[in-house]
Design brief:
Layout: E1 7-10, H1 14-25, E2 30-33, H2 48-52, E3 55-58, E4 63-64, E5 71-74, E6 81-84, E7 97-98, H3 103-107, H4 113-117, H5 119-134, E8 136-138, H6 147-158, E9 172-174
Parallel strand pairs: 1-2, 3-5
Antiparallel strand pairs: 3-4, 5-6, 7-9, 8-9
The structure holds flavin-adenine dinucleotide.
Amino acid sequence: MSEAYDVVVVGSGYGGAISASRLARAGLKVCLLERGDERQPGDFAESPLEGMGEVQVDWPNRRMGARNALFDFHVNSDISVLVGCGLGGTSLINANVAILPDERVWLDRKWPDAIRADRETRIAEGVERAREMLRPTPFPDAHPTPTKLQAMSRSASHMGRRSSARRSRSISRTASTTSG
Ligand SMILES: Cc1cc2nc3c(=O)[nH]c(=O)nc-3n(C[C@H](O)[C@H](O)[C@H](O)COP(=O)(O)OP(=O)(O)OC[C@H]3O[C@@H](n4cnc5c(N)ncnc54)[C@H](O)[C@@H]3O)c2cc1C
C-alpha cells in the first residue's frame, strides 16, 4: 500500500472494477479496496453442504456467517437482496448472461435526459466496447433448455400469461466461463 492515491475505489464488482481499470489506464494512481477474498477456479463450493459455509446473512438486528462469505444476504422488511462478496463482486455468483435492455426500458421517463440523449452515440459505443471485451456467445441451440427458463414459462402459464421467456439469440454467455 502507498500513503497516497489519486483515487480510492471501494468494491470490485462490475462498477468498481471497471472504474478502477479505466482510471488506472488513464494514468491515475488507483487503490481498489475489496472486503472479500480473491478466489481462483477450484476455490468454489462444489456441493450445497460446502456452499452453506459460504453464506452470510444480515438482518436488521442480527447477523450470521463469516464477513467474507461469498453469498451475502441482506434481509429487510421491505427489500431483501443477495450480493456477492469477493474480488469480482456479484459477478462471482451471477448467471453470466449478457443481454441488451428491452426497448421499453429506454422509454421510461425516469432516465435523465442526458443519458437518453447519449443512447445512439456514447451508450451504443459502450455496448460495442463491452461486446468486444466480453465476447458473449448465443446460448447454443443444441444445449438442453435451461431449467430456469422452463420454471419461468411454468410461472407465466400459472398466472394465465403467455411466457415471453424464450431461448433468445440475444441471451448469451461469455465463452470462457461456465458459471450460472
Ligand atoms: C443471483 C444473481 C444473478 C445475476 N445474474 C446476472 C446476469 O446473468 N447478468 C448480469 O448482467 N447481471 C446479473 N446479475 C446482476 C449483476 O451481478 C449486478 O448488477 C452487478 O454485479 C452489480 O455490480 P456492482 O459493481 O454494482 O456491485 P457488486 O458486483 O455487488 O460489487 C460490490 C463489491 O463491493 C464490495 N464491497 C461492499 N462493501 C464494501 C466495503 N465496505 N469495503 C470494501 N468492499 C466492499 C463487495 O464485496 C463487492 O465485491 C445477477 C445478480 C444476482 C444476485
